[in-house]
Every structure is written in structure tokens, then in C-alpha cells.
Design brief:
By secondary structure, this protein is an alpha+beta fold. The protein contains twelve helices and 38 strands. Bound molecules: alpha-D-galactopyranose (GLA).
Length: 712
């Protein structure tokens, strides 16, 4: 709900209020973000406070007023606000800017052109005008009554020629206080590791300058009171609906804490000619008073209702067998048919043919860009494989890496200028990136993929991206290199949008060397994303735990792979691999032919068991029970919205013989309902399960357990 009273704006979602106002001089001041409050004048919260060395702007209404100390809604540069600005541009007259309120509009159609965005909601567009330059800024606020996520973005319109140097999507100044920040950092094979630290004075900045949101730092930052925990306390989340180079900042200043973010300004510049508009991507500002757990559930619901593709989000997911770790590049048609036979017999419903089916792709040194079937390797092409799938009641999926080009490819030989960068270029995984900032190259790749999707019965596409960008320029970007990273992302989004729109029957899964681009931008097009190339259940439990802070379980693609694990060499039980993979969109990625008869029966049972709990994964609320980073036990619980069913999965890292009668308290149940815990044969009230708890099973190293919990 959006309420406008004079120049005060009060935005309300399910439980939060977000209040700001334009003061008498037109400065847009942030007043409040948190639990719902009455709609009344709270401008006293931004009373001018005189501080030495904080200058007043030229026409300040009070000598104590300074942009340096007032809580701003979108801070700008050069007239005395020494905190980091949300916007910097340069024009002939210099860099200073001074934004003032001009008016507002309520709209239901404020979608940022060419960018992934929130679906639904009502939008307030607040218009600001610069008093020093001929520039207009519109701040968009999209509110959904069913959610505690407020979506913001900004648009800059030039009335004179200028160069944008920094355009953040949102900015706000939280009241002074002691806060902690939580970020999700990582690397290939170890994505989204939570890291919580105190926010000291100065800047906490997380960013990617890799042309992708990256494994290394996820575009998500939580800011919370020191006393906030997993289950209680005020927590704010700041996530970007963007998949490229980004920055998020929390800056503890002399009077408050500025939190803001958007496109990474490092290396960024964007020329705007008079009359042109620049649109920054959307950001999701979330609030919960129930700690990090509450915040994660706010985000999970928001993704499911407003970000993920609506026609896919709640449907049962394909359970795939992917041939990558079964064969790597070493396959031919008979080998694939054998894998399909094995999979069909176990109840797997989709076969996904991974890397190596196209051009001369015999290893990862060649052929990216040559999107035609290698008929030497696959006798008769894809059709015999697809027909075999169909005969066994299975669907067929195909891997692509649409954004890449190998030097050793027909495409590169024909168009050496289509690669990002000019020689000498960096290589990574022996490949270059295709210059998707150029629409004609997007068209070319679209046509290659569309042709295959039209010719063959392909129901699933795995879209991979296996290197980051360097050089940030192309053959045709002369003079506009600062725009390259964002223009590249616009090209990627244009391609994804067109494919998703024109092939509604195809299920798209995202991937980037595992979970390197696991973000809201990609999840707008792809209902799920490959969480990590590390499928060792011990490592995976941690990766999925970290990912769950900001993303729903159903967005995590999770496969059972071989033991010993190909990444870690660690041996684990098939049950452990299955249990951990059941906490997301489950699937298989191993040579099924190498399983014993007993293991095959176990896989069959896993698939039946997964389908039984799948609705909890797709629709349920996730409660993190025991933190694998801080304890010997990993445990999570998915609870149905009506609290009649729940599914717990746990893993013990090390067997500790002397560890007796350790209890685990459940969460999220109804205190007054009685539940039956199938595996333990116990029937107890929710209050008992949540407060007295259950005994942790006695397990050996890396063994797992599940509890199916049902209301009686
Ligand atoms: C990436 C993906 C893997 C696999 C390979 C193929 O690493 O994460 O799942 O598809 O590429 O080259």
C-alpha cells in the first residue's frame, strides 16, 4: 500500500513501513524502514543537527541543515554530503549535483526496460530535479501487499550531455547504531559461504567486477542489529535483480549507516546525450523481525511469487540424469542410450546431454560457438537419442554455453572480432567471451539455439557460463568501454528473454561453472540454477545452507553424484548424497551403470521419496536448525505453509562417541498440533518438538538422517 500525505510517502508491505519525505527545500529525507507504524508525521526524526565541518547547502532552510548529516533517500555528490553518493555524473560544469523533489506518480507499469524485474505490485515514482545540472532522476518504489520486500530502482534522464560515473539502484540511511553485516562469499566449488562481521566505522563494500555476479561474492547483503540471531531480531536484506558486475555498500558514518548498491562503478561510465535515459537494475530491500531465518523466508516467498517464472515455479521439477560426471567428453550414441536405459529403469524422467555434443568439441579447448551436432560422435545426430528417451517415457535436455567462443572454432575463424576484448586477450578455460553487447551477435546465437530447439524435441536447456569477462571492450565499443559490462548483461538478458518467450515449453536451468551466477536476475528467466560443481554432500550441505539465506530451496539444483566424489575424492553413502540433494531440485549425475543392484533399488526409492516431499521443497518454509559452519551438525527443516507437514534432513560431520543425548529443537510447527515423526515412531505436540526437541540420532562420520513429520 502506498500512502502519500503532502510530501510524505508511506509505503507498506505485509508487515513493514518505509517512510520518507521531501522537506521544505525539496530534499528527499529517509525517515524509517522497519515494522509497520501508523501513518503520521515523523519528520522530527530527521531534525537538523549541527555538526562542525558539515557544510550547509546554498539555500538550506536552517543553518543546522547539512546534507552530510541528514538521512538521505538518494545521496548525491558535491554539495556537502561526504558519505558515498548514489549518483555521480560529470558534465561541462563539473560533478556537483543537488537533487530536489519535483513530484510523484503512482503507476502499475514501471518495469525497467530490458532488465529482469519484479512481477506485479504498485509503484510510486518520485521525481527529482537537479538544481545545478539539467538532469532529472526518478526513484521507483514497487510495493507488494503480500510481501516484506520493497523493490527500488532509479532512472536518470539527461537534459544536457553528460557522463554517468556511478548510478546506484537504491540508497538509504539507517539510523546510527551497532550493526552486523552478513555477506555470501566464495569461489568455484565453494559458493555462498556466509560471513557475519561487525560493521565498523568506514565502508563495507562487496562487489564483483567480473562481468557476472560471480562465485566470489553474491549480490546480497544483510544488515542487522548486533543482537539479531537466526530466529529473532531486526534484519534488513539488500539483494539485486542483476547478474553482472555489482556493488553493495554499508557505510558507517558519523551520524548513521548508509546502505546502497547497484551496478559496480569500478570501470563504469555511461555517456548520456541530451534527452537520453539510463535505467538502473532493481534492488530488493527486505525486512524481518525474525532474524536471518525470517529474512530468508521473506525472500523465498518473494522469489516464488514475484521473481521466478510463474508457469514453472510450483510445478514438479524434472528429475534429470545428466551425463557430465558419467562420461565427461567421452561418449557416443551407444553410451548415452545405455545411460538412458539405466535411468528410465530407476524412474528418472529427463536425460540431459551435457557438454561435448557439438562441433569438434572433444575437450574443453575447442568448438564453443559451433552450435551444430557432431554427427561423428553422435551417429545420426540427436534424434536417435531423443527417440530413445521418448520410447522410455523420458524427456530430453541439452547443454549450451551460449555466451562463449573458443579460439579453435569455426565461429572464431569466421568472426575473430566477435570475442570480447582486442588481442592480446586473456583466456580462461581456454575460451573467450562472445561480445553480446552487440545485438547482431545476440541474434546469431539466438538463431543457432532456436534452430536446434525447433528441429528437435528438446524440453530442457542447461545454460552454462564458464568464465568471467576481461578487457571489457569489443571491436565496436570504441570510446564506450565504460558501458561494456552492463551492455553485455543487457545482451544476455535479451537472449534469455527471447528464448524463454519463444520456447515456453522448454525448462531452462542456469549454471555458471556451478553456482557462479546464482542471482535474482538469472532466476527471473530460469526457475532453478546449478548450485555448485561440488556435489560432495558434506560440502554441498554448507553451500546449500549459505544459498538458503537469500534464495528459495527450489531454485537450487542439487544432484546425487558418484562416490568417491569427483571434486573432493571423499567417500559418502548414497543415502547421504540423496538426502542432501533432496533439499533442492533433485537429480542425478553419475554413471548409473556402475551402481550395484542394491544401490539401484535405493535410487528408485530416493526418487519416490523425493516426490513425496517435493511440494515442501517447492512451496514450504525453510527453517535452519543446526549450523554446519559453527557445529558438528547440519540440519534443516521444510515446513508446509499450513504447518501440517514437515521434512527434516540432517548430517553429522564427525562421530563423537561421548556425545550423548544431544537435542535438536524443531522450528516453525504449530505448538498445539500433534505430529507423528515417522522414523522415530513418536507422536508429540508441536510445542514439545520445538521446545524440548528430539534427540539427535547417533551417526557415524558424514551420515545423514531424515524425519518425515505429519500432523495426526
Ligand atoms: C561447468 C558446469 C558443469 C558442466 C561443465 C561442462 O563446469 O558447471 O556442470 O556442465 O561446465 O563443461
Amino acid at each position: 500500500m502506498i500512502t502519500v500525505s503532502g510530501r510524505r510517502f508511506h509505503l507498506r508491505g505485509a508487515n513493514y513501513s518505509y517512510v520518507f519525505e521531501a522537506d521544505g527545500a525539496g530534499y528527499l529525507l529517509h525517515l524509517y524502514f522497519g515494522r509497520r507504524i501508523a501513518d503520521e508525521d515523523i519528520s522530527f526524526l530527521a531534525a537538523p543537527c549541527f555538526l562542525s565541518f558539515s557544510p550547509e547547502p546554498p539555500d538550506a532552510l536552517s543553518p543546522a541543515f547539512s546534507l552530510d548529516t541528514e538521512p538521505q533517500e538518494y545521496g548525491c555528490y558535491g554539495q556537502g554530503d561526504f558519505r558515498r553518493p548514489a549518483l555521480v555524473f560529470v558534465r561541462e560544469g563539473g560533478r556537483a549535483s543537488n537533487l530536489r523533489y519535483e513530484g510523484y506518480e503512482l503507476t502499475s507499469d514501471a518495469v525497467p526496460a530490458g532488465l529482469p524485474h519484479v512481477r506485479g505490485g504498485e509503484t510510486l515514482a518520485v521525481k527529482l530535479r537537479d538544481t545545478l545540472a539539467d538532469v532529472r532522476v526518478t526513484l521507483f518504489y514497487t510495493v507488494n501487499d503480500d510481501s516484506d520486500v520493497l523493490v527500488r530502482h532509479a532512472e536518470i534522464e539527461a537534459g544536457e550531455d553528460l557522463v554517468l560515473e556511478r548510478v546506484f539502484s537504491f540508497s538509504l540511511d539507517l539510523p546510527a547504531g551497532d550493526y552486523d553485516v552478513l555477506r555470501l562469499h566464495g569461489r568455484h566449488l565453494a559458493e555462498r559461504i556466509p560471513c557475519r562481521t561487525a560493521l565498523g566505522h568506514g565502508l563495507c563494500r562487496i562487489e564483483s567486477s567480473r562481468g557476472a555476479s560471480s562465485h566470489q561474492m553474491n549480490p546480497f547483503l544483510a544488515v542487522m542489529g548486533r543482537d539479531a540471531s537466526e530466529d529473532s531480531g531486526d534484519v534488513y536484506g539488500f539483494g539485486l535483480i542483476y547478474s553482472g558486475s555489482f556493488a553493495l555498500e554499508a557505510e558507517r558514518c558519523q551520524t548513521d549507516v548508509r546502505v546502497q548498491g547497484g551496478l559496480n562503478d569500478l570501470g563504469f561510465s555511461w555517456r548520456l546525450k541530451k534527452g537520453e535515459v539510463f535505467t538502473a537494475p532493481q534492488a530488493m530491500l527486505a525486512w524481518s523481525s525474525s532474524g536471518m531465518g525470517g529474512l530468508s523466508r521473506v525472500y523465498a516467498d518473494f522469489f516464488r511469487t514475484h521473481i521466478l517464472p510463474p508457469e514453472r515455479v510450483f510445478s514438479p521439477r524434472p528429475i534429470v540424469i545428466n551425463n557430465w560426471e558419467a562420461t565427461y567428453f567421452d561418449f557416443d550414441t551407444p553410451a548415452l542410450l545405455k545411460l538412458i536405459d539405466e535411468a528410465a529403469a530407476l524412474g528418472i524422467d529427463t536425460f540431459v546431454l551435457d557438454d561435448g555434443w557439438f562441433g569438434a568439441r572433444s575437450d574443453d579447448h575447442r568448438a564453443l560457438g559451433d552450435w551444430y551436432v557432431n554427427c561423428e560422435k553422435l551417429a545420426g545426430g540427436l534424434d536417435p537419442v531423443i527417440a530413445h528417451c521418448k520410447e522410455r517415457g523420458m524427456k530430453f535436455g541439452l547443454w549450451f554455453e551460449p555466451e562463449m567462443i573458443s579460439e579453435n572454432s569455426d565461429l572464431f575463424r569466421a568472426h575473430p572480432g566477435w570475442a570480447v576484448g582486442t588481442p592480446p586477450r586473456c583466456k580462461s578455460r581456454d575460451q573467450y567471451v562472445l561480445d553480446l553487447s552487440r545485438p547482431e551477435i545476440v541474434d546469431y546465437i539466438y538463431n543457432c539455439m532456436a534452430k536446434l530447439l525447433q528441429l528437435h524435441d528438446i524440453s530442457y536447456v542447461k545454460w552454462d557460463m564458464n568464465r568471467h569477462l576481461t578487457e571489457f571492450c569489443g571491436e565496436k565499443s570504441g570510446g564506450r568501454e565504460g558501458e561494456f559490462a552492463h551492455r553485455y548483461m543487457l545482451g544476455v538478458y535479451a537472449l534469455a528473454e527471447r528464448l524463454a518467450k519463444n520456447f515456453p515449453g522448454v525448462f531452462f536451468e542456469g549454471c555458471s561453472g556451478g553456482g557462479g551466477r546464482f542471482d535474482a536476475g538469472m532466476l527471473y528467466y530460469f526457475p532453478q540454477f546449478w548450485t555448485s560443481d561440488d556435489t560432495d554432500p558434506f560440502e554441498r550441505a554448507k553451500i546449500q545452507w549459505g544459498t538458503s539465506y537469500a534464495y528459495p530451496m527450489s531454485a537450487m539444483s542439487c544432484h546425487v553424484s558418484a562416490s568417491p566424489n569427483h571434486q573432493t575424492g571423499r567417500e559418502t553413502l548414497l543415502s547421504a548424497r540423496g538426502h542432501i540433494a533432496s533439499l533442492g531440485a533433485t537429480g542425478y549425475e553419475l554413471d548409473l551403470g556402475k551402481l550395484s543392484a542394491e544401490e539401484k533399488e535405493a535410487v528408485k526409492a530416493q526418487i519416490i521419496a523425493y516426490r513425496e516431499v517435493e511440494d515442501l521443497i517447492l512451496r514450504g518454509d525453510l527453517y535452519r536448525l543446526s549450523d554446519p559452519f559453527g557445529s558438528n551438525v547440519f540440519a534443516e527443516l521444510a515446513v508446509s505453509k499450513d504447518k501440517t507437514r514437515a521434512y527434516a534432513v540432517g548430517m553429522v560431520e564427525r562421530f563423537i562417541p561421548s556425545d550423548y543425548n544431544r537435542r535438536l529443537r524443531l522450528k516453525g510447527l504449530d505448538e498445539n498440533k500433534r505430529y507423528h515423526v515417522r522414523e522415530l515412531g513418536l507422536t508429540l505436540h508441536g510445542s514439545t518438538l520445538m521446545h524440548a526437541g528430539l534427540l539427535l540420532p547417533k551417526l557415524h562420520d558424514l551420515e545423514t538422517w531424515v524425519w518425515h513429520i505429519e500432523q495426526v
